[in-house]
Amino acid sequence: NESQALIGDECGAIKSNLQLSVHTRRRGLDLLMASLTVSVHQSCSMSRRSAFTIESILGLDRPDPRTVLSAPHRPWTDVKPAGQSRGVVADSDVSVDEDSKSYSKSPADAYRRTLNWYIGRRPRTAFSSVQIKILESVFQLNSYPGIDIREELAKKLHLDEDRIQIWFQNRRAKLKRSHRESQFLMEKNVLSDLQSSREER
Amino acid sequence: NESQALIGDECGAIKSNLQLSVHTRRRGLDLLMASLTVSVHQSCSMSRRSAFTIESILGLDRPDPRTVLSAPHRPWTDVKPAGQSRGVVADSDVSVDEDSKSYSKSPADAYRRTLNWYIGRRPRTAFSSVQIKILESVFQLNSYPGIDIREELAKKLHLDEDRIQIWFQNRRAKLKRSHRESQFLMEKNVLSDLQSSREER
DNA sequence: TTGTAATTTAATAAC
DNA sequence: GTTATTAAATTACT
User: For this UniProt entry, which segments traverse the membrane (chains A, B) (predicted)?
Assistant: First the structure.
């Protein structure tokens, strides 16, 4: 039941992400993203005294590649014991705006989807090697098994027919993906071949 | 229109599955499916020397649940240096002990690159502190950035959009992990409190 | 050694 | 049905 599900482990994680209203979250994000570009006209000579203040982030326009790319992040080498990255709230500056209408997608959808990702999700099924082996064998012969075959497999493998169907869907997607990948590599090879043959001239 | 659709990217992938005629496919499938049941009368004492041979599949009658359900599938745990996962060739043993230890700088890189290519794993991306800082800021506002925001971030931070997405996935996993941990600690405290209060009586 | 980037895949939602 | 994306589990690198 529903209240049961809300008690779950991940409830806190959800709430911490949903404390701001969708409006506010989207608005704040817009502001942040915008701040990464709008300040092109600002002077770049502002003193950069304290790294990693809010200002240093929000004041950042198209970041200097040398700044962005340098100094790999090594948090565990820091002397700092203070782990501030924990159950973060970010509750401040909710007063940015009340009813901004500039967000593109439907925020309610995003909200509901976020919630649904956590609650009422089927636990991940772990297929055994034998099950996989048989499923793969069947897949090689027929990647679109009908309901009868799926039911048969389900009975044989002690799985729900639903799991079988999902497995075949994901398997087809995987095959398609790999095909796309190899085609991409082939095209890349063709390009490099073209280039090398041109260099030979 | 229809012929248009057939020209698409995935055409090859589909065709590779349709190389057998429908008759043949259905026939082979029938044989396979039947093989999962008909051999009830066969002796079960046949030597099961090599797991996952064709025989071990086809010889499987109503599979022993303990066999079918055990041993979760972990393909990448296998002998592994054989990088069969990617589109890579895995041409031969790289002979790890060739110059195994004490490669300090540039040979190490070459070796690692070879190995990476060989295993088919993307070289680990090292984010800069500034990149991390910005990613964290965005994460606090929205831990599920859509494609538009990811692309925007990618452009700003000079990263691939893919890296951004992976970063957010791992970041969410981290948050969840930390929540689980703290909840575990809380429960432990409750238990010890219970115990101490009982001892007081 | 730890933290985390990368990978794989079952589950889900949108279309 | 496909597609994109997620969580989960795990590997491997720094």
Answer: none
